[in-house]
Amino acid sequence: MRALKTLLFVAALAGPAPVAAQVMQQQQPRQQQERPDPADTIPVPAFRFDPPVSPLGAFGRSLLLPGWGQAVLGRRGTGAFFVFWEGIALTMTVKSMRQLHYQERTGVHADSLANKRAEFEDWLVLMVFNHLVAGAEAFVSAHLWDFPADLAARKLPGGAVGFGVELRLGRRTDPIRGTRGAMGRLER
Predict the structure, then answer these.
(1) How many angstroms separate the CA atoms of 144 and 73, rounded?
(2) Cα-flanking dihedrals φ and ψ of residue 167, to 5°?
(3) Domain boundaries, the chain
(4) 19-22 long-range contacts, Cβ below 8 Å, gap at least 24?
(5) What is the pLDDT tens value at each position of the chain, 188 positions in all?
(6) Range list of H helices, the chain
(7) What is the model's pTM?
């Protein structure tokens, strides 16, 4: 039995041979393609616009100071939200830390001290979480910087509210604000 296993193993290592029905095709040498004359070509406009900062740069900025990467990418509302939440979390962290130190100095009951320590740790974790989420959001926003989509909520027939993505293809003209390109930037 062992000899049969060894024989099958050696046969498997030898590799499969082409079967008679399989015909090996000869590869023909590639023909050199002629390059078109540069005067005859039409320049293709860029379809992707690079963000003002790289995705890792935006991530690093928002990891260091939440909202900084969003501000560089022109996402002021999102950046303001992260700065606002950072302010709340920082204020509450400092407040709970001072209260914890006060309770330690005055010799408050151990249960109350443990609760205050847990509150301090909770606010500290929320502050760190804000840094990580702001960095991740800035990273994704830098990758999707030139994506021409708007998320909108509209009233649907029947009274329901629905969310949808609007994709603008080409240019549109706004009689008040001028012409907007595919990226939504003003072009006058």
Answers:
(1) 10
(2) -105, 125
(3) 55-143, 149-187
(4) none
(5) 777 777 666 666 666 665 555 666 666 666 666 666 666 666 666 666 778 899 999 999 999 999 999 999 989 999 999 999 999 999 999 999 999 999 999 988 889 999 999 999 999 999 999 999 999 999 999 998 877 666 667 777 777 777 666 666 655 555 454 554 444 544 44
(6) 2-14, 55-64, 68-72, 76-106, 110-143
(7) 0.57
